[in-house]
Design brief:
Mean pLDDT: 93
Shape: globular
Strand content: 25-35%
Helix content: 25-40%
CATH architecture of the largest domain: 3-Layer(aba) Sandwich
Distance between the termini: 45 Å
Structural class: alpha/beta
Bound molecules: 5'-O-[hydroxy(phenylacetyl)phosphoryl]adenosine
Oligomer: single chain
CATH superfamily of the largest domain: ANL, N-terminal domain
Strand order of the largest sheet: 4-3-5-6-7-8-9-14-13
Low-confidence stretches: none
Largest sheet: 9 strands, mixed
Number of helices: 11
Length: 434
């Protein structure tokens, strides 16, 4: 059967042509959400904006913003712009509380997303001769299935390993001759180090990889490229907009090209909400312009970066994002998993024996992130037996794992030992230098 390969023409069209396409698709999206999503209709009515006011891409600034809290408040289906029977897939990621935020995809949304990832993999050198090992997690998280679909679209052979099980990953990588790897950069580093320890790096056929889902640096790239003898490319995305492939790096390795025929990026001043020019750092905002299931108007990612519109030597005309240099909220990305301190707090308040005083400490050692939660014991618990305290520690660790999705180190400390603050409590200490 003929393999359906995407059309690369769109990535190199002139900025003027792109403007026309974006304007048309934006107007259609606005009409669609106004007619089908009560929240958007209400927000636009409050601003006095009618769908017909949105004629070109430049009218974007008239539209209201959307926040992660809107997804939580409308959970699970309140933001759907298509009938539920047209939704063929749900993906999700962590929200600010225990509840995940979810996104519904129509069959066409899956097609578009697949194409976006296929572009990313192609830019990283993938083609039908490749064997692509997907070591992102499969499930609600978009990494595994997203990379998988894109890899199939370029005609490659896919190994759907999912994350973890490092020895087995490396055995398969060696025996099947994987040529590309898709996973978080921290897990790739770990795989590389383990492969070095096992002395099998020279037996591997890897040539490149698409790494994302968490912030990483040029230093981390150099280290990873050296460990595995590969080209390490960045890939960015978020569940609310599509998943991986919202933007991706090309061979120039100078920022991630945003798939601008499907999403419109903006940089805004995080305090005033005013749009900022290219080249100035600020908060990244996306509007989807081809999504049917759950379109997003001016979605505030809270990721901080810069957009560049200068020409790229690769020939793609879509603007590029610089690396994510921080967040405007307190979300942490730990080994690709989004963690909000409020999720941890929601677990702690429901547990007897600990006081509502805690600190969350993020560390990065050997390019791998870890989280420690220090929690104060109550006076009563403090004088209990060591065995009871250990049971409590394990209970906290298990509950946090089930809500947040990652294992944290739990340290139980004496009553009143966590410094009290006179202002806003400093509950988060991020010691990572990214
Ligand atoms: O992390 C989607 C993804 C999967 C991207 C696989 C790339 C590869 P979420 O779980 O919704 O989706 O988390 C999205 O992760 O807002 C960023 O803060 C962070 N993030 C994702 N990719 C990158 C990256 C997926 N390349 C959140 N660099 C985003 C820095 C990233 N941060």
């Amino acid at each position: 059967m003929e393999n359906k390969i995407y059309d690369p023409k769109m990535e190199c069209i002139s900025r003027d042509e792109l403007f026309e396409i974006q304007s048309k698709r934006l107007a259609e999206t606005v009409r669609r959400v106004y007619d089908n999503v009560p929240l958007y209709r209400k927000r636009m009515d409050e601003k006095g904006v009618r769908p017909e006011d949105i004629k070109t891409r430049d009218d974007l600034r008239l539209l209201p913003f959307t926040e992660k809290t809107d997804l939580r408040d409308c959970f699970p289906f309140g933001l759907l712009a298509a009938p539920k029977k047209e939704i063929v897939r749900i993906q999700g990621s962590s929200g600010t509380t225990g509840k995940p935020i979810v996104s519904g995809y129509t069959a066409n949304d899956i097609e578009v997303w697949t194409e976006m990832v296929a572009r990313a993999l192609t830019a990283a050198g993938a083609g039908p001769d490749d064997i692509i090992q997907v070591a992102y997690g499969y499930g609600l998280f978009t990494g595994g299935l997203g990379a998988h679909q894109g890899a199939q679209r370029v005609g490659a052979m896919v190994i759907p390993m999912s994350s973890g099980n490092t020895q087995r990953q490396l055995m398969m990588m060696k025996e099947l001759g994987s040529t590309m790897l898709c996973c978080t950069p921290s897990y790739a580093t770990y795989l590389g180090e383990t492969a070095r320890e096992m002395g099998i790096v020279d037996d591997l056929k890897l040539k490149s990889g698409c790494f994302g889902a968490e912030p990483w640096s040029e230093e981390m790239r150099r280290n990873l490229e050296g460990l595995l003898n590969i080209d390490a490319m960045d890939i960015y995305g978020l569940t609310e907009i599509a998943g991986p492939g919202v933007s991706f790096e090309c061979c120039a390795k100078n920022g991630c090209h945003v798939n601008e025929d499907h999403v419109i990026p903006e940089i805004i001043d995080p305090v005033t909400g005013e749009p900022m020019p290219y080249g100035v750092p600020g908060e990244l905002v996306f509007t989807t312009i081809t999504k049917e299931g759950q379109p997003m108007l001016r979605y505030r990612t809270h990721d901080i970066c810069v957009l560049y519109d200068d020409p790229c030597p690769c020939g793609r005309t879509h603007v590029r994002m610089g690396r994510i240099t921080g967040r405007t909220d307190d979300m942490l990305v730990i080994r690709g998993v989004n963690v909000f301190p409020s999720q941890i707090e929601s677990v702690l308040v429901g547990i007897n024996g600990v006081a509502p005083h805690y600190v969350i400490i993020a560390e990065r050692e050997n390019y791998t992130d870890s989280l420690e939660v220090q929690v104060e014991l109550t006076e009563n618990m403090f004088s209990d037996t060591v065995a009871h305290i250990e049971t409590l520690r394990r209970q906290i660790a298990d509950q946090i794992k089930s809500v947040v999705g990652i294992q944290c180190k739990i340290t139980l400390v004496a009553p009143r030992s966590i410094p009290r603050s006179e202002g806003k409590a400093k509950r988060l200490i991020d010691n990572r230098k990214i």
